[in-house]
Amino acid sequence: MAPETSFAAAVDSICTILSARPPYCSGTYPLSLEQLTLFYGSDSSDVNKITLAKSTPQELDRLAVACQPATFGINSEDVYDESYRKAGKMDPAEFAVSFDVEDSGLVDVVRQGLLEGVNEKREIKMELYKLNVYGQDSFFKAHKDTPRGETMFGSLAVVYPTPHEGGEFVLRENDHEWVVDFARSVCKSSQQPCVGYISFFSDVEHEVRMVTSGHRVTLTYNLYFVSETGVAAPTISMPTPYDQALAEALYELMTNDYVLPYGGYLGIGLRRQYPVTDCTDVTNFRNYLKGPDAVLGRVLSALGVSWNVRVFYREVDDQEYLHTRVVDLSKWGQMTDDVVQTIMQRSGAEVVGY
Known about the structure:
- The structure is a single chain.
- The protein is an alpha+beta fold.
- The protein contains seven helices and 22 strands.
- It has a seven-stranded antiparallel beta sheet with strand order 1-16-12-19-10-8-4. Strands 7-11-17-14-15 form a five-stranded antiparallel beta sheet, with no helix packed on it.
- It starts with a helix and ends with a strand.
């Protein structure tokens, strides 16, 4: 096979492998009736109790009335717009649940279902964020979650077994769409009471379709990697089924005479998105890579390849740069090429060919 053809085949193989796994995990998780109890109220003198596995429509109506209108995040701001999201919400200070996501073991299920390789054993923090009630005609249009820190990698929604129709959870990425219907899998189960759960990476577009009847009650958690200060980036461990295929494709690419015959950098774009602002040091993301990005780093390490995370600036003052940090050139306004070049080089950028 000609080097050019071999190169194209290896690139296609790498792209296919890194796109193979869905960016979410979901299922049902059995709980006892005691674990499905919710307490809520505005103060200690007005506390209400509801068992969500056998709640009445009247109890759920009272819960919905006690909620505030739900907002959503845009550019780090909370916005209220019922044409985009119609639902009720409570903050953690306004309610308490008998269900503990860590003690119940659900945290382990999510970690193993969403994360890969060595990250399956990594400590993660689940931060209770909101309780939401979607009544009849409630919905949440397609959106992506607002990252709340560089170690935040995903979200978890827990759906209680309250009677409702509609409210399907829809995820989309590239040309793929996945629909999860908890109204069928949880609410109509005749077995032991259970909750539905769906966990996904923060940059995945998702929506809640309109609830046509009943009440859809959920808990939402923000998921964070626990910082591992002083711990080296993980190397290969507990390989995924496609680690070997990825390793073979990368080896084929890096030993191809057509690739970088005079040396240089080989860049592979990350598949997932990460929260950045001006001056963010992207090398910190090496220890917080998600999904296929984590697999890529692990396999490169196993191959003995030196790698890191960089920002690639293309066609900036007719140059290409690699940088460890994000540089927001827009804040400087209109600049000549010489000024841009000075800013980039003084900030530590490296000029590279492309």
